[in-house]
Structures are given as structure tokens and as C-alpha cells.
From TrEMBL:
Gene Ontology MF, one: DNA-binding transcription factor activity
Any GO BP annotation: response to stress
Domain of life: Bacteria
Name the UniProt record assigns to this protein: MarR family transcriptional regulator
One Pfam family per UniProt: MarR_2
Location of the HTH marR-type domain: 10-144
Amino acid sequence: MTAEDERPETAPLTKRDFEALAEFRFGIRRYLRFSEETVRRQGLTPQQYQLLLALKGFPGREWATMGELADRLQLRHHSTVELVNRAQGQGLVDRVAHPQDARAVRVVLTEQGEDVLGRLSALHRDQLGRMRTVLTLPRWQAPD
């Protein structure tokens, strides 16, 4: 969070602004709860699903380094390594030598990881479609 993120807007928030923020936060939490329950029913943790999604959704390629994943997942490097270890143990991801950097490895999805991610992401997409109005950014009201 930067100092700019913490700076309050010039106009004070109205009651409707608080209601809009609360409704948006409620929608986010409902979606996250749906996601957590859905991935757990498939035998994954929410973090493992996020890992698979980060790999498949990485811009421009089908792999990522540990450092890139740590950044995408907003985790410390050692936590990312542990997460990848567990996912690799379940056959969801694999490590491949990086051809240009002997110190780095590429993390890739396995066929099983692709299958699980495809099923789970379709469920998430459908849920987002159902929640479209709740997850729309609030429209700020002009002060009364």
C-alpha cells in the first residue's frame, strides 16, 4: 500500500457510499467463500487453485518462475516453493529446467493440473456471471 492509497478523498463519504462499499465487500466475500468451498471439494486448497490459475493465466507463456509466482500470488519466495512442492506432489505442476538460467526453474502445469483447472475455472466463471451485479464497482454518489 502506498501513501497515495491511504490518502482520503476530498469529499467525505456519504451513507450511500458506505452502503455501496459494504455491498461490494459482501459480494467479494461471497465469491471467495464459493471459491474456497468449490476447490476444497476437488481436493485442492484455495492457494493451489490460485497457483494453477496464475500459471495458466501468466501473460504470454505457459510457465513462470518461482519469483514470478511469488509476485503474482503475493507470497514470500519460500512460501511459494512450499506451495509448488505440495502441488507437484499431487501431480498438478512440474518443474522444468530453465534453458537460459541454470539457477532458475520453470513451473508448468501438468495434464492433470490443466484438467482440474479447466473444471474449476468454468465453475468460477459461471459463478461470476451469476454475481455480475453484486461485483460491479460501486458508483459513488455526489455528496448531498
